[in-house]
Write a structure and sequence with these properties.
There is one protein chain. This protein is an alpha+beta fold. 20% of the residues lie in helices and 37% in strands. The chain contains two helices and nine strands. It has a six-stranded mixed β-sheet, with helices on one face. The radius of gyration is 18 Å and the shape is globular.
């Protein structure tokens, strides 16, 4: 077992590195010298990233852990949407979904719900009055630990994402 872990560790680190979001799109060539678009996207099926609100970390498809507990996760949205729906077995909730590119130039999606959406909307208010769009910024989501006061889950810990932004340089 140790031999296999030692053997595959560099391979896993390479995969993990290529799964991390691009933090700036301006520096990346998105079109080949032949004029071909280098972005990978299967329409309707972006690569799925998740915020694990029970553990306070981010992962890819619920499998590959991308951050440690309470470690920030930064991405540059290429699109986003806010909607209300009954998905993933959570009942009807308000969601915000961000689309971004990872280092392998794959289109990815990351969704937040509940208090994390409220936190983002507070930031969106500031961004609006500052005259910037989320797609013109590096967005950082940081898990913050909370303790439930709900009678059925009193004392149970969970995480919400708080957000910050940094406008991208205009080229």
């Amino acid at each position: 077992q140790d031999f296999l872990n030692h053997f595959f560790k560099p391979f896993k680190q390479t995969i993990m590195k290529n799964l991390m979001p691009l933090t700036t799109i301006k520096k990346v060539d998105l079109i080949s010298k032949d004029g071909e678009l280098l972005i990978k996207y299967l329409p309707g099926y972006p690569r799925s990233y998740r915020f694990d609100a029970s553990r306070g970390r981010f992962n890819e498809n619920g499998e590959n852990v991308l951050t440690q507990k309470v470690e920030a996760f930064s991405f540059t949205p290429i699109g986003y949407r806010k909607f209300t729906d009954d998905i993933l077995g959570y009942g009807k909730k308000t969601w915000i979904e961000f689309f971004f590119l990872n280092e392998s130039l794959q289109v990815c999606a990351l969704m937040f719900h509940g208090y994390s959406v409220d936190e983002f909307m507070r930031l969106a208010n500031t961004m609006f009055y500052d005259g910037v769009s989320p797609c013109d910024c590096l967005i950082t989501a940081t898990p913050n630990e909370k303790v439930s006061n709900h009678p059925d889950a009193k004392g149970q810990k969970y995480f919400i994402a708080s957000f910050s932004y940094k406008p991208l340089a205009k080229d």
